[in-house]
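Title: Comparing notes on inverse folding

I've been comparing how different people in this forum approach sequence design from structure. To keep things fair, I'm posting one structure and asking everyone to reply with a full sequence. Here's the target:
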C-alpha cells in the first residue's frame, strides 16, 4: 500500500488531546462491508452498508475498489454515465485510473492521487484503467466516496479537482508512530488541498504495529474510520477491527485508534481512512446516479439526462473508450 510515504520523524506532529480536557468519542458500531461488483464488473466492498443515512450525513456512499491483482485483459472500469446533486471523490492507493467528463475535466491518477468531481447541476463522466494496464494487468486498489451537496449547491456548475498525492498535507502522530495524509479539510490546524462545498475532513492514516493514534476531531462533525488494511482497535475501549470494517464514533472531540502488534504478512500496518463532516440535515432522495432533495427533482434529473441536458460525450475521448 504505497500511496504517499514519508519519514514521520521529519513531519509536523499532531497534538495528542488531553483526555482530562477533551472527551474521547465512543465507538457506537462496527460494521463489515459486503462484497459486490461495480461498473463493468470490478470488485468492491460496500463500506457504508448497514449504516443509516442520518449517521453518515454528509456522506452518501463509499466503495473500496479492489484490492485486486488483475491478469492481462481483466482490468475494468465504468462506461459513460451521469451524475447530479453530489460530489465523487476517487482516491487511488495502488494502480492507475483515468477520468474524463463532459465538462472538460480529466486526467490520470495513480498512487496517492485524488480526483474530486463536483457533479452539481449535471455531468457525464467515465472512469477506466488506461489501455496499458488493461493489456498488462496489475494491482489495483482505491476508494470512491460520494459526498452530498447542500440544497443551495446542488445545481452549481460542475467542477473538477486533480489532487496529486504529494499535495496532501503530511503529518505525524505525536510520537511518530503514524503517518497522516490530509486530503481535505482541517486536522489540528493543518489543511488538505481538496476544496469542498460541505465542510469535511478526509485523512488516510498509516499506523505502525503496536502504535496508538490519538488525534483531535471537530466536535461538530461526525466521525467514521474505515479499515483499508491490517488490524487493530478503535476507541478508548479498544474495540477490535480489521480490513473491510467501518467504525462509527459517537460524540466527542478526540479519536483513538491503535494498530495490533502483529499484522497480516501482506499488510504490515493498520491503514485507515478517517472521515468526518458537518451534517447537512436535509431530505435525501437517491436514485441511481442522482441525489436530490425531492422525488420531483429526481424525475427532473432523469428527464434532463434523457434530453441531453446533463452534457455531451466529448468528440475526443480517451483512446480505449467506446460508444
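Reply #1:
Here's my take.
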Amino acid at each position: 500500500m504505497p500511496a504517499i510515504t514519508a519519514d514521520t520523524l521529519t513531519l509536523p506532529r499532531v497534538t495528542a488531546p488531553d483526555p482530562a480536557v477533551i472527551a474521547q468519542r465512543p465507538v457506537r458500531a462496527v460494521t463489515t462491508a459486503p462484497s459486490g461488483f461495480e461498473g463493468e464488473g470490478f470488485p468492491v466492498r460496500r463500506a457504508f452498508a448497514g449504516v443509516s443515512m442520518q449517521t453518515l450525513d454528509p456522506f452518501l456512499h463509499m466503495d473500496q475498489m479492489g484490492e485486486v491483482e488483475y491478469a492481462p485483459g481483466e482490468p475494468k472500469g465504468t462506461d459513460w454515465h451521469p451524475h447530479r446533486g453530489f460530489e465523487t471523490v476517487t482516491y487511488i492507493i495502488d494502480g492507475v485510473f483515468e477520468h474524463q467528463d463532459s465538462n472538460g475535466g480529466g486526467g490520470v491518477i495513480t498512487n496517492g492521487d485524488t480526483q474530486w468531481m463536483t457533479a452539481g447541476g449535471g455531468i457525464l463522466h467515465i472512469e477506466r484503467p488506461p489501455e496499458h494496464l488493461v493489456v498488462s494487468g496489475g494491482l489495483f486498489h482505491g476508494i470512491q466516496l460520494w459526498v452530498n451537496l447542500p440544497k443551495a449547491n446542488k445545481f452549481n456548475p460542475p467542477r473538477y479537482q486533480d489532487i496529486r498525492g504529494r499535495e496532501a498535507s503530511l503529518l505525524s502522530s505525536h510520537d511518530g508512530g503514524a503517518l497522516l495524509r490530509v486530503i481535505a479539510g482541517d486536522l489540528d490546524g493543518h489543511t488538505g488541498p481538496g476544496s469542498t462545498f460541505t465542510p469535511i475532513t478526509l485523512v488516510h492514516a498509516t499506523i505502525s504495529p503496536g502504535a496508538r493514534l490519538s488525534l483531535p476531531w471537530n466536535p461538530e462533525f461526525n466521525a467514521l474510520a474505515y479499515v483499508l488494511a491490517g488490524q487493530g482497535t478503535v476507541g478508548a475501549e479498544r474495540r477490535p477491527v480489521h480490513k473491510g470494517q467501518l467504525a462509527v464514533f459517537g460524540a466527542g472531540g478526540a479519536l483513538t485508534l491503535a494498530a495490533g502488534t502483529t499484522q497480516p504478512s501482506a499488510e504490515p500496518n493498520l491503514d485507515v481512512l478517517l472521515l468526518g463532516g458537518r451534517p447537512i440535515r436535509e431530505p435525501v432522495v437517491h436514485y441511481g446516479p442522482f441525489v436530490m432533495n425531492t422525488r420531483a427533482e429526481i424525475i427532473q434529473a432523469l428527464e434532463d439526462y434523457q434530453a441531453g441536458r446533463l452534457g455531451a460525450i466529448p468528440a475526443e475521448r480517451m483512446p480505449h473508450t467506446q460508444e
